[in-house]
User: Fold this.
Amino acid sequence: MTTILAFDTATSFGAVCVLTPGGRAHAPRAGDLLQAVDRLVDDPARIEGIVVGRGPGSFTSIRIGLAMARTLSLTLGVPVAGASTLDGYDRGTPVVDARRGEVFAPGPRVCRPEELDVAGRTLLGDGAIRYRALFEERGASIPANDDPLHLPDPLLLVERAGPFGDAGAVEPLYVRDPDARPSA
Assistant:
């Protein structure tokens, strides 16, 4: 495959996407993913496959990304592959805000920020920004808040994605149970 649409919506940064070998786009909210895709894709028939970030991250945002990947896959008749959102980082250790005073970290795992061993490490992601003071106090370095290194890189997701296949086979990567539960 040479033309792959790849995107991730799991972090608080919204939607980041890329069309290989074309350009990149960003939307400030996961729900605006289609606007970012529209900026990249002038001819949907060129898309040969889709890679979607499957988390960990915001439960709702992950669901938006997976639903969009499945919808586009069915509409265009192309296969889908999934990758961990944490695989979208390569110049430091990813730390994704898990809310509730927690972060998602490689493993993948969820933990309190103070439980991470960060001394001497470069931390990236919205969790690194949110807990900057704590992490820097413990010896980590964190790029400026507006540094693009904090965004998961969709090209890295393409490199690290699982096998392409049926969109329904790509499962979300939830590291903890969702807050919402069906009533009994």
About this structure: The longest helix spans residues 59-76. Helices lie at 33-40, 59-76, 126-130, 132-137, 154-160. The chain has five helices and ten strands. The mean pLDDT is 93.
